[in-house]
């Protein structure tokens, strides 16, 4: 049975979509069968970041009952073992789709894939909660700033209460400012394991613009290596915590 991992944060723009796309490809490189799901129903951009630009059927069509799940699953030929469920960006589709249907659609994917990575919206609103509760485990993403850490902690606490196994957090964009909170202080404050430090890296932003996540775009970049390390860490710990919890 595969792992269902929600990629979540308190504030927007911390790097959830960047983590989802790179982790998906990094896990694919490790030989795992992966599907990345765009569960950010109002501000979708995972397919843009992963270079899929001609998707007719999206998760919105599945939620509104206009399509079957299988028709919304795309394989990405350039990314070994990696699949994607895109989301629509036009308002007509957005208003027809009820986010509360997400768990029912996403959870069964664990029967077909080793890893189901769920790119969630930020915060604790109903659309974010529905996306996050589609997972059984959570990977939190924060930047090294105090308000960002505080908000991501809040979301982590809510997810734990809701029964998810919070695996830990990723400290993203480290090294951008001399005022960055150091990793060990971030880990003490977050009260959950630090699973990876992704440096501020221009190659990551360039990859985003090209629609090729950095682990493929520039595998030798520091950011790419950090994502490969994170993937190895996820393989090591995912599934263990939830086995102890349930
Ligand atoms: N480590 C990094 N170094 C440089 N740029 C980064 C890094 N991480 C993310 N970015 C850039 O920051 C921007 C925001 O990242 P991303 O879209 O992944 O955030 P998000 O949390 O998904 O945002 P939202 O909450 O709006 O969905 C993107 O342009 C991305 O390329
Ligand atoms: Mg995003």
Brief summary:
The protein is α/β, with parallel strands linked by helices and 246 residues long. The protein is built from twelve helices and eight strands.
Structural description of this entry:
- The chain is built from twelve helices and eight strands.
- With 246 residues, the chain is an alpha/beta fold.
- The protein has one domain: Rossmann fold (3-Layer(aba) Sandwich), CATH 3.40.50.
- Strands 3-4-2-5-1-6-7-8 form an eight-stranded mixed beta sheet, with helices on both faces.
- β6 (137-142), α7 (146-161) and β7 form a beta-alpha-beta unit.
- α1 (16-29) crosses α11 (222-237).
- It starts with a strand and ends with a helix.
- 51% of the residues are buried.
- The model has no long low-confidence stretch (mean pLDDT 96).
- Adenosine-5'-triphosphate is lined by residues 9, 12-18, 40, 43, 122, 172-173, 198, 200-201, 204-205, 208, 223.
- The site of magnesium ion (MG) has 5 residues, from α1.
Order of helices and strands: EHEHHEEHHEHEHEHEHHHH
Strand arrangement, major sheet? 3-4-2-5-1-6-7-8
Largest sheet: 8 strands, mixed
How many beta-strand runs? 8
What distance separates the N and C termini?
15 Å
CATH level 1 name: Alpha Beta
Q: What bound compounds does this protein have? A: adenosine-5'-triphosphate, magnesium ion
Low-confidence stretches: none
Structural class category: alpha/beta
Strand content: 15-25%
Please indicate the count of domains: 1
Tell me the CATH superfamily. P-loop containing nucleotide triphosphate hydrolases
């Amino acid at each position: 049975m595969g792992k269902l991992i929600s990629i979540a944060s308190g504030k927007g723009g911390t790097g959830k979509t960047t983590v989802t796309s790179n982790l998906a490809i990094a896990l694919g490189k490790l030989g795992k069968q992966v599907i990345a799901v765009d569960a950010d129903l109002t501000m979708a951009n995972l397919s843009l970041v992963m270079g899929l630009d001609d998707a007719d059927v999206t998760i919105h069509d599945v939620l509104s009952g206009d399509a079957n799940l299988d028709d919304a699953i795309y394989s990405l030929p350039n990314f070994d073992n990696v699949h994607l469920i895109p989301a629509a960006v036009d308002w007509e589709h957005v208003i027809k789709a009820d986010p509360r249907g997400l768990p029912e659609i996403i959870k069964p994917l664990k029967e077909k894939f080793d890893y189901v990575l769920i790119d969630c919206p930020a915060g604790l609103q109903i659309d974010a909660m529905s996306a996050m509760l589609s997972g059984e485990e959570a990977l939190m993403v924060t930047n090294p700033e105090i308000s960002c850490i505080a908000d991501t902690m809040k979301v982590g606490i809510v997810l734990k209460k809701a029964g998810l196994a919070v695996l830990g957090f990723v400290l993203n964009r480290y090294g951008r400012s001399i005022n960055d909170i150091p990793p060990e202080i971030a880990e003490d404050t977050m009260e959950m394991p630090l699973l990876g430090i992704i440096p501020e890296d221009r190659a990551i932003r360039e990859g985003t613009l090209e629609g090729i996540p950095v682990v493929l775009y520039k595998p030798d970049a520091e950011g790419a290596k950090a994502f490969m390390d994170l993937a190895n860490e996820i393989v090591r710990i995912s599934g263990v915590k939830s086995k102890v919890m349930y």
